[in-house]
Amino acid sequence: MKRFLILGVTGQDGSYMTDFLLKKKCQVHGVIRKSATGNTKNINHIINNSKIFNKSFFLEKGDLLDSISINNIIDKVQPDEIYNFADQDHVGWSRDIPLYSYSTTTLSVIQIFEFLKTKKKKIKFFQPVSSNMFGLSEEKSLNENSILSPTSVYGLAKASTYLASKMYSNMHNLFICGAIYFNHESPRRSDEYVTKKIIKGVCDIYLGKKKFLHLGDISAKIDWGYAKDYVETAWKIMQQKKPDFFIIGTGTNTSVKKFTQECFKYVGLDYKKYLKIDSKLIRKNKTKNLKANLTKAKKILKYKVKTNINDLIKIMMENELKKYNE
């Protein structure tokens, strides 16, 4: 039985990756931080399943910023593959805690690469990065060779990790691959992200719990996809003969205004009656409208967009509305 180690197991991507791998009858180990022990909602359905928990799924105590703990876990688990979905994953937060953000996203990963160099067993490593690396790009659509131009510490950290991944793979013969992910959403997204804020706000208004939804720049256009689809692609990337990075997105941009409009439309409301623009919410140094060029992924991975924006809105709206009936 193949063994997998997932960093960031309690997050959106890590939890979906766990679900996906467990269906393949694999042994999955997830790393959990002390500060995340009370935030296991994305994996509670696994923890509460006595047929799976501590049988095919195991939790390991560790933290990316404690390199000794990570090395000890790797030695204990002896994984065939490691998926790293742990980082400081919010642009706004990276401005307020830049050193923490960079250390978590980049320096901790370089330390893992150093550990992997010393292992007798060749362990495959998946490292996702972000389209925020291309923040200032003027290109109409972005491919794997687009120029890195971050506008935040978050984007800088992702760009650094991307370059480190390629360097260690090339110079030290490590199997380090990954995806350059564009925005990917789901019901497991945390409330501080704009898609979840809109979904929750619309449902609250629909149910009479709130009168208005306050947003900033609704003209921003974003390439939004479904996180569950994207982690399945992560597995495909890991199964390639040679390590490589692929742009993963939808190739279609949707404005925040259109996303909001469709969410209100889903519950039969006119967004114009409830939407308030708040200039304080408009992000400084915002990125350009980034769109994915999927040519390489389609050619090599046979990648297809499975969930369009309307399907994604339906998935997220249905999940949120269901909460009010529980």
- State the CATH architecture of the largest domain: 3-Layer(aba) Sandwich
Low-pLDDT runs of 5+ residues are none
Specify the helix fraction band: 40-55%
In DSSP terms, counting alpha (H) and pi (I) runs of 4 or more, how many helices?
11
Task: Provide the domain count.
Answer: 2
Radius of gyration: 20 Å
Rounded average pLDDT? 94
Output the CATH topology of the largest domain: Rossmann fold
CATH class of the largest domain: Alpha Beta
Number of strands: 14
Query: Which structural class matches the secondary elements?
Result: alpha/beta
Main sheet, how many strands, which sense, barrel? 8 strands, parallel
Task: Give the end-to-end Cα distance, rounded to a whole number of Å.
Answer: 38 Å
Q: What's the gist of this structure?
A:
This protein is an alpha/beta fold.
Itemize the secondary structure elements and their pairings.
Layout: E1 3-7, H1 12-23, E2 27-32, H2 44-47, E3 57-61, H3 67-77, E4 81-84, H4 91-96, H5 98-118, E5 124-126, E6 129-130, H6 153-172, E7 176-181, E8 184-185, H7 194-206, E9 213-215, E10 221-222, E11 225-226, H8 227-238, E12 245-248, E13 254-255, H9 256-266, E14 275-277, H10 295-300, H11 309-323
Parallel strand pairs: 1-2, 1-4, 2-3, 4-5, 5-7, 6-7, 7-12, 8-11, 9-14
Antiparallel strand pairs: 10-13
Helix pairs in contact: 1-8, 5-6, 7-9, 7-11, 9-11
